Amino acid sequence: MTSRGAPRRVGGMMAALRGGLGRCRPLRGAAGPGGRWPAPTGGAALRPCSSGAAPGRLGKAVIDRIIRVDHAGEFGANRIYAGQMAVLGRSSAGPVIQQMWNQEKDHLKKFNELMVAYRVRPTILLPFWNVAGFVLGAGSALLGKKGAMACTVAVEESISDHYNSQIRTLVEGDPEKYKELLQIIKQFRDDEREHHDIGLEHDAEAAPAYSVLKTAIQLGCKAAIFLSERI
Amino acid sequence: MAAAAAGSLRRAGWGLWRGRAVVRWQLSPPQRPLQASAVLRRVSDEHKKEPLASSSQQQFDSHPADHQPGQEPQGPDPSYTGQGSQESEDYESEEQLQHRILTAALEFVPEHGWTAEAIAEGAKALGLSAAAAGMFQSDGSQLILHFLSQCNTKLSELLEQEQKLVQQGEAEKKPIDQFLRDAVEARLRMVIPYLERWPQALSILLMPHNIPSSLSLLSSMIDDILHYAGDQSTDINWYTRRAVLTGIYNTTELVMMQDSSPDFEDTWRFLENRIADAMKMGDTANQVQSTGEAIVQGLMGAAVTIKNLTGLNQRR
Fold first, then answer.
1. Which of A50, A164, B125, B264 has its CA 20 to 30 A from that of A98?
2. Do A44 and B238 lie within an 8 Å CB cutoff?
3. CA angle, B162 as apex, B157 and B166 as ends, to 5°?
4. How many alpha carbons lie under 13 Å from residue A151 in its C-beta half-sphere?
5. In this prediction, does ipTM exceed 0.95?
């Protein structure tokens, strides 16, 4: 006599047939600010979709990375401007750098709030970016006002490209759900673009070894972005 | 008729096979080749079954007398009939089935330990065959992970309810050390019914293939507790706080297993002392930092004074 387990098994299989290949259910529970994201292992009823299988659905991992790397970026930018101010604070470029620094401080504050709201882990490399950013800012400022501006141009160009690719990811993924995040990133991208233009206005291109400096700094930024997303 | 019976038997067999593939997929994310092969097997299963279903449907269509409203195979067992039409109520996914079996198996853990026997007893308690335990790994690790994940869910529901009460003004906001103490105590108390078998569970969780899952469950639990405690750190403190709380939780768990005092008083006192130590450590770290800053400022002041005295600070 077949046990009563068998009909359920058949039922399960029939449903799986109907479900078809892309058997992907949306994550249970509220996502987004303050929402509770279930643990991926051990929870028998949960199977998060990989972002490849269901287009238009961004997993928590993607949003985590975005916020983590942006937070690290703003933190680093803060430290770069602090380093520049430490050297050039009393020179003629002081007020310009101070103003850009204040905007970066606002950006960082915003990302701190987002990080708590989305419950994102910060990158463990933050102490390293703390020192590296300050050293980069102070080092470029020691090359003179134009050196500092060249550093600003290189970093801001990297950052605005990076924000642009994040905006693309979000728009392709789920622009409605992450409307607020998209808005914030667009605003910040515009601010960084403005900093980039200010740097150019202040003779960044006349800095000593401008192209070498710019390439080196942008390479460093790419490495920092890669690491901060993952670690 | 015979073909339909054979088809249903074949489907039951594939279900077991697919069940195992699903289980492997769920619990071993690092094992990518297995995962890939499980995916391929599911793909091929589903592809194989669709032509089978359609061919059996054709057989039914040609025999209107045997036709069932839900197009289920009319096997010898009368309980099969009519199932298709009730599909939305009777159908449950495999994860739900596994979930139910493991939950039922927890009752038998004090007697049989965290083993396949307990899972088999659980399956029997639900009226399923004891062979359903074959869906799971033989070392009982899925049972333990299921239990852990259930405890974590219960804990976060508890913490969320508390938070709601505080927000609605019906309860006082607890100071942090008491909040942490209560949360860890609540979570550890969930283990008490299984305490005799818990050392076995911990040793199974330490096996290499279980470490990723158990670590992930542990870290999400600690993250939950700290989140509801109001932790808003976004720097290296995020890591240090979680590391400290994880250490406190693990040591308290070990103490609890050796504790024989009434209602585990010694354990809760141990917990209180460790949390007090952790709070003091935080204060000490702050004091060290401010002392360090004060020293640096003192040195800078001394340097400027010396520069002034020796005339090196002249402005041109």
1. A164
2. no
3. 145
4. 25
5. no
